[in-house]
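Case 281 in the screening queue. Each case pairs one protein sequence with one candidate compound; here the compound is adenosine monophosphate. For every case the pipeline is the same: read the inputs, emit a complex structure as tokens, and attach any notable structural observations.

Predict complex for case 281.
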Amino acid sequence: MKTYKTIRHLKKRLQEYRAEGKSIGFVPTMGALHPGHISLIELSNQNSDITVCSIFVNPTQFNVKEDLDKYPRTVEEDSEMLEAGGCDVIFLPDADEIYPPDQNNEYKVDFGDLEKVMEGEHRPGHFAGVAQVLKRFLEIVEPDAMYMGQKDYQQFTIVRALLKKLDSPTRLVMGETIREKDGLAMSSRNVRLNEKERSIAPLISKTLFDAKAKIGKKSIAEIKQEALGQLDIPEFTVEYFEIADGITLQPISSLNGIETAVACTAVHLGAVRLIDNVVLK
Ligand code: AMP
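Case 281 output:
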């Protein structure tokens, strides 16, 4: 496994791989890696010849500066996990490499209604930052396939729209959400939970799975209301709990005529904001 900090060196290596006829799989991350990230590395290994993982805490996708400052940074442990997970190349750029100060780095794209709900509504500018950094990474890595997690369902949907807008040949592949034994979705932010918060956090996934179990037995309105009831404990501040069309992400009131549906939630627990989702149909 090799680590590159500059675009020039990374591109040179990737050109050599391409000359050997090897396909490139790409897993973008912000580091503080856990088995959820490694499952994407493994998925890439199964489907692509070479796996490139970027570790870059992208400042432009944080709408709250404190969250950026507190984002865990564990590059040494990350490298060890990537090596063990079979990653071939780590791309570890600094911010000036991705956003050269002498270059216009702006990228404005309208995702329409996809970004007006849920994460888009509650984290203004977040998806603009995600689109900006991924456009840049796609130009640099030019992957055959990009692997991203269901954990960030709305992000995945936005990235699918981004690839379409860019007319990109890169294939987008979804990896399932990897969970702790008690159901809590793995997240880099989980390490910031104290012991008590950590013991309460699995109620988020439990509520989502309970909602799924009620499909076909209760109305969407009832399921949503009961989920909000379950999450209504003093330790949680619920930002949203939504049952949405899995393609358009717009809230739905029934599953009639809906191809795929997803329940998504964002909850504040102490100083930590956690998101999770479950595909209902
Ligand atoms: P992040 O480092 O949080 O930006 O995440 C990098 C990638 O890992 C994204 O595609 C996420 O959706 C994915 N990811 C994060 N958590 C999980 C998880 N628990 N299971 C599977 N994929 C995940």
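Case 281 observations:
- The chain has a mean pLDDT of 97.
- The chain has eleven helices and nine strands.
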